[in-house]
Design goal:
By secondary structure, this protein is of the alpha+beta class. It contains four helices and five strands; from the N terminus they run αββαβαββα. The chain has helices at about 10-25, 65-75, 100-115, 135, and strands spanning about 35-40, 45-50, 80-85, 120, 130-135. The structure holds tetrahydrodeoxyuridine.
């Protein structure tokens, strides 16, 4: 695993990791006790955060990454460059990596952003950080190109 330390990140990557860390402190995760934060950099430079939001019906849980993308969508953002993710208090010193569902969501967001979204994945101590684009995190992805889409002209799908 080719990891970096926080000090080797660019200024914008550092900012995203910090924002993700702040968002993790707002996580609602009484079941897993595993707070996760995400920070999404939009094309216009704005940053939208998310944190995991759990439920006693475990399957209703929403990961930090999807909270951030859904929030961005509700704000009318449809173009993204990068996302940072960090978790607190896990048992591993490895960087957190997004779950399969979040990879799928990030992949499609990348398609309509016309970008291979950069994913910055940090461990809690920020001394092991992976930076990998979503197409590498989800090879052979299923995507809108694989289905027949009934388009409404307002939809951004390609
Ligand atoms: N979780 C995230 O928010 N993002 C990830 O990338 C992995 C997992 C959350 C879901 C659940 O609230 C907790 O972490 C434990 O799985």
């Amino acid at each position: 695993m080719q990891t970096k330390t926080y000090s080797k990140l660019s200024d914008v990557q550092k900012l995203l990791v910090k924002k993700a860390e702040e968002a993790a402190s707002n996580s609602y995760s009484p079941y897993s006790m595993f707070p996760v934060g995400a920070a999404l950099l939009c094309e216009d430079g704005s940053i939208i955060t998310g944190s995991n939001y759990e439920n006693a019906s475990y399957g209703a849980t929403i990961c930090a990454e999807r909270v951030a993308i859904s929030r961005a969508n509700a704000e009318g953002m449809r173009s993204f460059r990068s996302m940072a993710i960090i978790a607190k208090g896990g048992k591993s010193s490895n960087p957190i990596t997004p779950c399969g569902i979040c990879r799928q969501i990030l992949y499609e967001a990348g398609r309509y952003s016309n970008r291979d979204i950069e994913v910055i994945m940090s461990n809690e101590k920020k001394d092991r950080i992976l930076v990998i684009n979503i197409s590498k995190l989800l090879p052979f992805a299923f995507s809108p190109k694989d289905i027949v889409i009934k388009r409404r002209s307002s939809l951004p799908h390609k």
